[in-house]
Design goal:
Blueprint (H helix, E strand, L loop, with lengths): L1 H16 L18 H15 L3 H5 L2 E8 L5 E3 L2 H10 L3 E10 L2 E9 L14 E9 L2 E8 L15
Parallel strand pairs: 1-6
Antiparallel strand pairs: 1-2, 3-4, 4-5, 5-6
Length: about 160
């Protein structure tokens, strides 16, 4: 009985130390049932982008990475290219849902201003969708999709 009480105290302290009382949500609270580790990568990327920390946002991408944002798929082979891509996104994004589909995580976001940027304009509050392929804790594909996810994007041949 004494061991049970001690275990309860240790568990409570561990949860408190890990942010158990934090109202910020985090990846564990994102609905949709996607792989929690992949959701953590996506959520961390989105937070870094929203804070306008391009270097940190870019650190979540592997090289090479396939990017498709209203374009044919583009293969990005350099950190400088990933930085340029992240810089090109005018809005920040808050992850609202993440679903698993054929190896991809289909993420829904609510668009926000980026810290210090203020360039999202009328996009603030709108929704956006992206299909992510996460391998070994890094983004290997980032593809814009409908914000109402149903299936993974079709496989295509990357264009350099």
């Amino acid at each position: 009985m004494r061991f049970l009480g001690l275990a309860l105290i240790v568990t409570t302290l561990a949860l408190a130390g890990c942010g158990g009382g934090d109202d910020s949500g985090g990846a564990a609270s994102v609905p949709g049932g996607a792989d929690p580790e992949a959701v953590e990568v996506i959520d961390s990327w989105a937070k870094a982008l929203g804070e306008n920390d391009i270097e940190k946002a870019s650190s979540y991408f592997d090289l090479p990475t396939i990017i498709q944002n209203g374009t044919p798929p583009l293969r990005v082979d350099s950190r400088r290219g990933i930085d340029a891509f992240n810089n090109s996104l005018p809005c920040g994004a808050e992850l609202t849902r993440a679903e698993q589909s054929k190896g991809y995580v289909i993420a829904s976001f609510e668009l926000t201003e980026r810290t210090g940027e203020g360039s999202c304009g009328p996009g603030v509050g709108s929704s956006a969708g992206t299909a992510f392929l996460i391998e070994d804790g890094l983004i290997t594909e980032w593809r814009r999709v409908s914000d109402e996810p149903t299936v993974a994007p079709a496989t295509t041949t990357p264009i350099i």
